[in-house]
User: Which sequence fits this backbone?
């Protein structure tokens, strides 16, 4: 295949309207000029998007597959996203629902550095779902947050994720907080190792700072002992993940957080499909873990939408290795057995605010989580 | 005022549901923990969002004003956006429609460096709307694009904007293209000056590259002679604009392009209001010019939505100086007189693909635009 393809869900009144809309997308996301002035030759034959097929899917709904040449994207993710859903994101009734990569694309965008397998090795946990407490709330001082890190890591957490709102506020500035939390997790890991635990907790601080400081802050966090990072593509751009994932000086796993991305999936008619955004696009960017709001929590995703996300994180037919889905958003320990049946072991189980209810007994909560997620033990 | 405020449009069934949703937003975008575990003192009194009022606006529609303390945001734009519409962007029926800054906020986020007045001085045009041809399509070689720059600048264009799809592709790589185009515009400006023209065309190339290269590419462009930049916050993040706007080593105007931002405004129930996204948020980021799709073009914005954008770009009751709106998206010269009546002189009038129809007579088209936008001359 000399072209990669994007499938769009279109709202249209007739086959001919749907075909016209598909042609409009093919133009819009590449040349953005009227069809009658497209120069013949290379620009028309290679750079211009090409409508492959347009098929009715339901009343007033069509699916259009459009192929693009890598030359339209170049080598940088921002322009690739321009081609996938740039200006077409502003057209009414256009939703990108599937990315079909070709070799040109995967040669330039390799996906996650760790993925599901790499994370299992890094954490050293041979089986079971991942126990992932979320350290919060913002406004807490560094010592309080570091203590939460220690308590949860010591009790057997696999991943210590910072709340995405812990940024660089005065109450717990990024550098001071990350140094203290990384040290707390390291101390817990040493104690676990001394007891014969062959797995470790990895600490993933939230990148808090300016967009152009991401690499410096990531390298600082690594130097301080963090074993990964949380990053918000809806604020920093998907390419921020991509650059770190490809950066050998960093070389740690990245967890992507969905903040500010809601409008891309909440409308049936615009943005991305759930699986495409939280699965395919996160893999394209190079995230190792994709956080999304679980069904039945505070957000309104359905079980089918969550299944679509998880499938897109795992299917071999996509960019880079399979990655770990991470459902969260108002979960509690009593829901974990059901979630474990639904999502299985290769999944990061987030537990945030409800953990705070346990107060000084937070370690008990982590142990309960651990046993719910490793039913065989 | 010790707090800034955001107004949200809520979809709810009753006053009590609307109030519950407002309280959920106030928690979600700050602490993200259950209300009953919020620590007393600083976190509850200062960091937590505070619902100011919730009023019904229409059937099933409410408006809720929520105030936030700058401590929840800190000093970096990504976290400020987290507070304005981070996780709340994923809640069903929540749309941010107004930002009411306070001094804490404007002290930390000063807005545009140039704004409408600064641009008029820089371009040296005392009156009339701005003539802004868009250089395209991608796939063209550098010489072709540079020639379009020369022809349009020579004929009297005010702003030479690159197409947002001209990135860093092999056909016209960023550095080579920007150097050639800047030289072409400089030559045209010299010839205009020799004829007594006291205004100049400014060349605004599109940042094409990786997210972490924005500053380097911006400084390269400045060194090469560009007098501004086009940047896409939907791909690079709003903070990419903010950092350049505040960077004294750069010190040039920034034009923001709406690519990839469609889903934030297309749903009535999610994302941002048109004026808030393309006016207030662009001013908050520090853009000097905000490009948006005009009504009656290829995109479906209504005249009222466009008016809302333009008002939000111009009102003094916002962050930083008034900025220039820039309607585009399938415009043609015959629509300019009507647009000029609607938008007035402090507006950048984009003309892209349709200019290519003029072929070697593109200079005539620019002169026609100029006379349509300076009716008194």
Assistant:
């Amino acid at each position: 295949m000399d072209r990669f393809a994007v499938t769009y869900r279109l709202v249209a009144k007739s086959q001919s309207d749907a075909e016209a809309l598909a042609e409009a997308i093919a133009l819009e996301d590449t040349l953005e000029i009227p069809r009658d002035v497209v120069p013949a030759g290379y620009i028309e034959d290679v750079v211009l998007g090409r409508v492959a097929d347009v098929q009715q899917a339901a009343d007033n709904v069509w699916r259009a597959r459009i192929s693009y040449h890598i030359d339209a994207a170049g080598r940088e993710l921002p322009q690739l996203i321009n081609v996938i859903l740039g200006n077409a994101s502003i057209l009414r009734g256009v939703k990108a629902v599937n990315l079909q990569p070709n070799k040109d694309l995967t040669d330039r965008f390799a996906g996650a550095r760790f993925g599901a397998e790499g994370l299992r090795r890094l954490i050293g946990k041979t089986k079971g779902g991942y126990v992932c407490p979320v350290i919060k709330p913002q406004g807490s001082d560094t010592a309080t947050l570091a203590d939460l890190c220690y308590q949860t890591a010591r009790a057997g957490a696999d991943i210590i994720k910072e709340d995405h709102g812990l940024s660089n506020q005065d109450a717990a500035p990024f550098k001071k907080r990350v140094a203290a939390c990384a040290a707390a997790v390291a101390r817990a890991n040493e104690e676990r190792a001394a007891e014969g635990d062959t797995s470790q907790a990895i600490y993933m601080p939230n990148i808090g700072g300016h967009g152009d400081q991401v690499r410096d802050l990531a390298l600082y966090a690594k130097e301080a002992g963090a074993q990964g990072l949380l990053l918000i593509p809806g604020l920093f751009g998907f390419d921020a993940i991509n650059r770190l994932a490809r950066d050998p000086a960093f070389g740690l796993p990245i967890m992507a957080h969905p903040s500010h991305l809601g409008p891309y999936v909440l409308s049936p008619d615009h943005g991305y499909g759930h699986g495409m955004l939280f699965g395919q696009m996160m893999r394209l960017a190079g995230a190792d873990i994709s956080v999304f709001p679980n069904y039945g929590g505070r957000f309104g995703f359905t079980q089918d939408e969550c299944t679509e996300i998880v499938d897109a994180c795992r299917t071999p037919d996509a960019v880079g290795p399979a990655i770990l889905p991470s459902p969260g958003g108002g979960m509690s320990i009593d829901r974990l057995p059901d979630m474990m049946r639904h999502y299985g072991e290769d999944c990061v189980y987030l537990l945030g605010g409800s953990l705070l209810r346990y107060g000084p007994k937070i370690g008990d909560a982590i142990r309960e989580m651990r046993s719910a997620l490793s039913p065989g033990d």
